[in-house]
C-alpha cells in the first residue's frame, strides 16, 4: 500500500516534496486543472486528474490538502467522496467536529481509514518537546501552561498540548477583552491552568502569511519549566530558582541545585533555517503522518481509534475560537525579516 494521490497544490506543494523520497510513491495529482497543478504534475511525472472517481485506479491513499468547510473550503466533501470509494485519507487540519464525524462514519462504512494531519506534532522539535514534557510529568505534576500562537495554527497547538499533557479534558476558556495583535485566553486544558495569547488576525489578501509566530509553549512543574521557543525549536529547560536561607538568615549559596545552569537547551541549540523548514522539516513531518495512515490502513484499524481523540480536539478548538471571537481582518504587505546580526 504505497500509491498516493495528492489533492490540492497550494500547501500541497509540501506533500509533493515529501513524496520525492520513499517509501511511498506519488501516482497522481487531483486538482481543478489550473496551470500550477498542471506544472506540478509535469514536474513530478504523474497524471493530473479532476475527478475523484479516477483516484481508486491510481492510489490506495490520498492526501486532502484542501481547506475544510469550517475555513471556507471543500476539503471535507472531497475527503468523504474518496473515503466512500475505499481510499484512505490524510486530511489537513483544522476540521469542525461535525465534518470529522461525517468523515469517520463514511470511513467506517467503506471501510477505510481517515486521519487528521496537524503536521506540527510530527516535526522533530515538537516531538522532542512532547516526549520531554511527558518525562517531566512522570516526575512531577504539571502546574501551568503558558503559550502563544497565531489563530491559523491554534488547532495544532491544542494537539501539541493534548499529547504533552496526556489529556485534553477537562477544558475551560475565558477570553479577556480583545487585544491587538494578541487576545488573551485563560482557563484550563487537561485540567491544567492555561494562559494563551492568540494573534487573532488574518490578512485576506494573503491569508496564510503575516503570522507573528506559529507556536511558543511553556509548561511548568515544581522543578522548573520547559519551553519550546518556537515550533521549530530550540527546546529550553529552566530549573526553578530557589535560594534558601541559612540559620543566620543569609542566602544559603552552598546548595547543590544552585550549581545548575539557569537555562539549558535540550537537543539542537539553534533552530533550522526557514529554507530547511519548508524543504526538509515539513516534508519529513508529512512522511511521518502518511506512514501512520499507511500502518493503520494495513492493520485494518477502526477509524475511530484515532478519530475519537480528534473529535475531542475539534470540539475543544471550537470552544476556544468561540471564546476568542472573530479575527481582525488586515491588509498587509510582505514583512522584512531581520537577522540576529542586524541587532548586535
CATH architecture title of the largest domain: 2-Layer Sandwich
Q: What overall geometry do the principal axes of the alpha carbons give? A: globular
The beta-strand count equals 16
CATH topology of the largest domain, by name, is Dihydrodipicolinate Reductase, domain 2
Secondary-structure blueprint:
Blueprint: E1 3-7, H1 12-18, E2 25-30, H2 35-44, E3 48-49, H3 55-58, E4 61-64, H4 75-84, E5 88-92, H5 97-109, E6 114-117, H6 124-139, E7 144-150, H7 154-165, E8 172-175, E9 182-189, E10 192-199, E11 201-202, E12 215-221, E13 224-228, E14 235-239, E15 264-266, H8 274-298, H9 304-324, E16 328-329
Parallel strand pairs: 1-2, 1-4, 2-3, 4-5, 5-6, 7-10, 11-16
Antiparallel strand pairs: 7-12, 8-9, 9-10, 12-13, 13-14, 14-15
Helix pairs in contact: 1-8, 4-5, 5-9, 6-7, 7-9
Q: Could you characterize what this model shows?
A:
- By secondary structure, the protein is of the alpha/beta class.
- The chain folds into 2 domains: 3-120 and 280-305 and 318-324, Rossmann fold; 123-274, Dihydrodipicolinate Reductase, domain 2, CATH 3.30.360.
- It is built from 9 helices and 16 strands.
- It has helices at 12-18, 35-44, 55-58, 75-84, 97-109, 124-139, 154-165, 274-298, 304-324, and strands at 3-7, 25-30, 48-49, 61-64, 88-92, 114-117, 144-150, 172-175, 182-189, 192-199, 201-202, 215-221, 224-228, 235-239, 264-266, 328-329.
- Strands 8-9-10-7-12-13-14-15 form an 8-stranded mixed β-sheet, with helices on one face. The protein has a 6-stranded parallel β-sheet with strand order 3-2-1-4-5-6, with helices on both faces.
- Helix 6 (124-139) runs parallel beside helix 7 (154-165).
- The chain starts with a strand and ends in a 15-residue tail after the last strand.
